[in-house]
Amino acid sequence: MRTVFMGTPELAVPTLEALLEQRHEVAAVMTQPDRPAGRGHRLRSSPVKSRAFELGIPVEQPARIKAPEVLERLRQLGPEVIVVVGYGQILPQSILDLPRWGCVNVHASLLPKYRGAAPINWAIANGATVTGVTTMRIERRLDAGDMLLKRETSIGPLESAPELAGRLARVGADLLVETLAGLERGTLVGEKQDETEATYAPILKREDGWIDWNLMAGEIFNRIRGFTPWPGSYTSFRGKRLHVRKAHQKLEASAAPGVISMVDGSLEVGCGGTALVLEELQLEGKKQMPAAEFARGHRISPNEVLGEALQ
Known about the structure:
Blueprint: E1 2-7, H1 13-21, E2 25-30, E3 35-37, E4 42-44, H2 47-55, E5 59-60, H3 68-77, E6 81-85, H4 93-96, E7 103-107, H5 119-125, E8 130-137, E9 147-154, H6 161-185, H7 217-226, E10 234-237, E11 240-250, E12 260-263, E13 266-270, E14 275-283, E15 289-290, H8 291-298
Parallel strand pairs: 1-2, 1-6, 2-5, 6-7
Antiparallel strand pairs: 3-4, 7-8, 8-9, 10-11, 11-14, 12-13, 13-14, 14-15
Helix pairs in contact: 1-6, 5-7
């Protein structure tokens, strides 16, 4: 099947590879323009662009997918299907109507649950124990098109967002291959989504990482797992931003919410009725270190509180 692949993040790479492994003809890859990254703000290619170059596939990076010249270019490429995995721009109706088999999206949730830009992160942050991947036909409304195939998987109790994303990327690649085969055979019929079951996973914002110590330890722990690596989970310590990189929950309380203390050699912080044992911390401008080492170096005072307003 002649395909144009649209994708940007690492999550999309296995699907691109699977298309080639199954002898689909990838006429071109479209991905987001290079972005400044790192301290030097050097332009960095997307993971999909880097892999496409390695595979010898032509790459195009339109700034605006809705630009008339993009539609004309797609007409020249003549795809029978457009495959989309985390592309990062909303496709106009003119593009959705172009391919014979339509535009097929690989979405990292069991739709209609967790529509939106960050389904993996919010599923973990909300304490979900099951998620999956859905292939769907793209329509103008966000992640609301007819579902084609689904594959379910459990979320490990300690699994972080990058770890789950790596697993779902492979699941999604396999599911997309099955989906295209079903479309070619004419055996795959789309299923309408139940709008009453829809939930949303909006794009993450920096403020989502702020820790509310009044929450239960388990809720905070889930957010730490879900918001890795960005925006991370952070609080404040003596007027500076303090990132909690690793922690685990404790069922009983050790102190009032936000109060930190050493208990049996471990640094704990009180939460809403429970406690969180801090394992790895990083103060702004400093390197990451074990929490016990952090406590020794900063001489934690009795009843010292995390989470006071940042200066």
